[in-house]
Specification:
Shape: globular
Order of helices and strands: EHEHEHEHHEHE
Distance between the termini: 29 Å
Structural class: alpha/beta
Number of strands: 6
Helix content: 25-40%
Strand content: 5-15%
């Protein structure tokens, strides 16, 4: 008999999650993502549209988890994206989350990200070895991302901040399943304050 979480099927007046495409540009061409093949125009959302969306969420459903990204990489908007996140938190949105490949994260931006009030950042990694990472996250640099994860974790510690929750995601695919165990062992061995998320092959990052 299947053990289902029936709360997932309860009717809601508002969505549990709201993904807002603040930017349609990305710095990578990941093999599982159609972003680089999209034919629609590229661009960024106007700030006044973002504030209107945030104001409505804060008024109608502050518990909705708000993601300031969809098909794009939010750090292409840095440092401006940190102001957008601060606005959402100031208006009363309870949970703001961000998905990123973290390749564009610079050490001097770590304080701004932590102090923005961001509740959660999900980092797509999907590999342990440099070669496999480059095959999957085309255009990325694994060592740069590892350094970014480490100084982000250290910045949280230095600022005595519980947020953002730092999640490292590994989406299982034919191309990387042999590296799942080494991925887990490597990051567990760092003793950093982070969460490892192994997503089944039916998921998409």
């Amino acid at each position: 008999m299947l053990d289902l979480d029936l709360s997932l099927f309860e009717p809601r007046d508002c969505p549990a999650d709201l993904l807002v495409e603040t930017v349609s540009e990305c710095n990578l061409a990941c093999i599982m993502c159609p972003q680089s093949r999209l034919s629609r125009p590229r661009g960024r959302m106007a700030y006044d549209l973002w504030t209107r969306i945030v104001d409505e969420v804060a008024e109608v459903s502050p518990g909705t988890r708000l993601w300031p990204a969809y098909m794009g990489e939010p750090l292409t908007m840095a440092p401006e994206i940190f102001r957008w996140i601060r606005y959402a938190k100031h208006q009363g949105v309870e949970h703001v989350a961000m998905a990123s490949n973290l390749n564009l994260m610079r050490p001097d931006q770590a304080d701004s990200l932590v102090l923005s009030g961001l509740d959660e950042i999900v980092v797509g990694l999907d590999a342990h070895s440099v070669d496999r990472y480059c095959d999957i996250r085309v255009g990325g640099n694994l060592e740069r991302v590892r350094r970014a994860v480490m100084y982000l974790a250290h910045t949280k510690q230095r600022l005595a901040s519980a947020t953002p929750r730092l999640v490292l995601r590994f989406v299982v695919m034919d191309e990387n399943e042999a590296e799942q165990e080494s991925f887990v062992n490597f990051w567990r061995g760092t003793d950093l304050d982070l969460t490892l998320e192994i997503a089944p092959r039916t998921s998409w990052a």
